[in-house]
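Work package 3, deliverable 3.1, input record:
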Amino acid sequence: MAEHYTSFDRGGRRWLLQRLTAVFLIGTLTFHFFLLHFVNHAADVTFLQTQARMSEVSYFVTMVLFLIAATFHGVNGVYNALINQGIQGTQKRVVGGVLTLASVLLIAQGIRVALAMAGIAVI
Amino acid sequence: MSDTYNRGKVEDFGRWTEFSAGMWAWIFHKFTGWVLIGYLFTHIAVLSTATASDPTVYTNTLQGLEDLLIVRILEVGLLAVAVFHILNGIRLLFVDLGVGLEAQDKSFYASLVLTGAITVASVPTFLAGAF
């Protein structure tokens, strides 16, 4: 048996958050896929249906949390994969900065999309 | 602490024929992870353009994409990638908890088989109305 089963620093905050978001995403990603491909077929989705779903506060909040969790989990996974490839020092700081910026922009734009879907005017 | 053995590096892909189940699980989990984060950025970009103007653009964008057979096939691929990442992710959570370590290879094979079964079962749903 190997001593370590993960390339994260065990016990670190990113390690824990990666697992907590994983548990949350198991539920939300399954729900998202099931609702929009099996309950409602993607080919039949219209703006009015989307707006009706997004107008429900609980659905809206779930989707925004889903977006934040997925962005963190995915980008943190990419960061970890690149550290595993051996980046360090300035390279690591630059990659960390770029990925953080990309995450903030993705979440901001994702929330703008969610608001537009809910029919709330956005800038 | 457990005993260690030298399984070689997974990054040394030239010796892939010698890889163990756990190494393949690592590779598949990384690959599906890259696909999913790539898809997330693409998904938000497409929805951004679709919601930028009046509601008909959104409906037409989604239905226009769904009219393309290649999109339906890619959706099946996306489901396969997501299902494997979820199932293997559950396996990894158990490994992290130290549960079922002695069966980690079998749980990887189970993840693969279940992913295949769910993907095949989903094909009729994804391709409905595509032809």
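The first helix of chain A runs from residue 13 to 39.
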